[in-house]
Amino acid sequence: MINNIWKEIEARKKNFTTKEMEVYEILKNDTYAFRSSTATEIAAKYKISQSAISRFCQKLGYSGYSDFRLSLFVNSSLNDNYNTLNNSYYTNFLINNINNISSAISDELLQNLANIILNARFCYTSGYGASDIAAKMLAFQCMIQGAHTFHLPATTEVETLHIINNEDVVILYSALNSSHKDFFSMLEDLPPQKRPYIILISSTPRHPFAKKVDKMVLLPNTQDVDPSIIFAPSITQILFTFLLASQVSLSMFKKSNQNNAF
């Protein structure tokens, strides 16, 4: 069934209940979420029940969501042209991705972001699912350079609002979904002196929180890349993070040299 998972889904679609059709539409429109998120995260994101997700997976012949997710993950790695995939194919993907990021993200923007991070009292990073990889990477790379940057595990960004203020920066990585909705909901109740500066790093200008942040960094969209590149969105985030962390390091080096000159 692995190699024909989409054919199987389409073949059984006529037997789906209303709730199962709802899950089907979500899967079709946001397949990446099913490959990179838990059933709990998907249920919260799209306001559907976990039981509906489980019944959908069982209707397809799987034991549950985890079993279905694994098959979907493997199926995404195997397409009809898999014999053409090799190291050169993926190397070219990375090169093209880097070039796209370089075209979309100017040196001035990287310098501006680095300055924001370095001038903050504290900087926090967070993300959900695959987006959390880049969030962790940025926090770690900045921290070892001496910048006061910390990673917030998913769901803990809300609790952090009790200790941060308008001298702090929160950097959220989010490909498309609304996983940080509780965080933004609580932000609305904070007085200006308690509200941190929010940066959203995403690949879609139509992100649900695009108008609720102080600054948005728009990365190249990877929705239409070959499905064999399973983690294309997170790879783009990681490559961007490498550039940003390098800019932070360079800025700190220049500042140190300037201080030593006096």
Describe, in plain words, how this protein is organized in 3D.
The protein has 262 residues and is an alpha/beta fold. The protein has a 5-stranded parallel β-sheet with strand order 2-1-3-4-5. The protein is 55% helix and 9% strand. It contains 12 helices and 5 strands. The termini are far apart. Mean pLDDT is 84; it is low at 78-83.
Question: What are the main properties of this structure?
Answer:
12 helices, 262 residues, five-stranded parallel sheet, alpha/beta, 55% helix, globular
Give the N-to-C terminal Cα separation: 69 Å
Instruction: Count the DSSP helices.
Output: 12
Give the helix level as a range of percent: 40-55%
The strand line-up of the biggest sheet is: 2-1-3-4-5
Order of helices and strands: HHHHHHHHEHEHEHEEH
Poorly predicted segments = 78-83
Overall geometry comes to globular
Topology diagram in text:
Layout: H1 5-12, H2 18-29, H3 31-36, H4 39-46, H5 50-59, H6 65-77, H7 87-104, H8 107-119, E1 123-127, H9 131-144, E2 149-151, H10 157-160, E3 169-173, H11 181-187, E4 197-202, E5 215-218, H12 232-261
Parallel strand pairs: 1-2, 1-3, 3-4, 4-5
Helix pairs in contact: 2-5, 7-12, 8-12, 9-12
The gist of it:
By secondary structure, the protein is an alpha/beta fold.
